[in-house]
Amino acid sequence: MELSDKYMFKHKGCYFVTDLATPEYIDSLEDFEIRDSDVFLVTFPKSGTIWTQNILSLIYHEGHRNGTEDTDLLDRVPWLECNIRNRDYVKRASPRLFASHMPYYLMPKELRNGRAKIIYVARNPKDVLVSYYHFSKVSVVLEDVEDFDIFMERFLTGKGAQLHMATVTRNIFCHIPLVEQLCPFLSKDGVTQVTQALEIMHLDYCNAFFMEMCGPKDVASAKCVSKFIMGCS
């Protein structure tokens, strides 16, 4: 069952909600000017984004002591790729807070080059799947798919979600050197220990996840998929 163009469009390997973005706007973000004080909250959909947006907003606005409790979350931490209210992000006062579901390769080039701060929130893919399924039933911009098996098939093949979960995971772990930028307080040995731990934890998790999804009869394929995500030979 293919996606309806009414709800989603595919651009550069990533699916976007038709009512919230355009290919032209996504492309324009390549040259979006980044400030060192900017903070980007990056997540896969249904991974705790709003929860973290609120925490981030409370931290930066000191528990709303400056009167921001009456400001909508969409204005406090707006979406980079979905400028729903047509705000001029360039004129926003620093520090600017942004949220995004976009993959690494579609982010502004200055952000990819190390400017600003990035907070990445990940969630168990099985929980993401279930949450996304129920969310699609109440969202007016997403297609309501009654059959959970069809929804899961789309999820696992990257149709209907922002991007294939496996691709998102691979994007993260293919850029493990970024840990050196994200953890400047660590010594060289400390950074090495963190990256090695991430690789081991991720590979073990992927093996377990895909073996569960594929079933015991296809364990070899599940392990192969896990290695592909990690970029292993």
TrEMBL record:
Record keywords, A-Z: Transferase
The UniProt entry, under InterPro entries, shows: P-loop_NTPase, Sulfotransferase_dom
Would I find RNA-binding among this entry's keywords?
no
Keyword Chaperone part of the UniProt annotation: no
The Enzyme Commission number assigned here is 2.8.2.-
Domain of life here?
Answer: Eukaryota
Domain annotation Sulfotransferase: ranges? 36-160
User: Which PANTHER family does its entry note?
Assistant: SULFOTRANSFERASE SULT
Q: Which protein family is named in the record?
A: Belongs to the sulfotransferase 1 family.
Q: What is this protein called?
A: Sulfotransferase
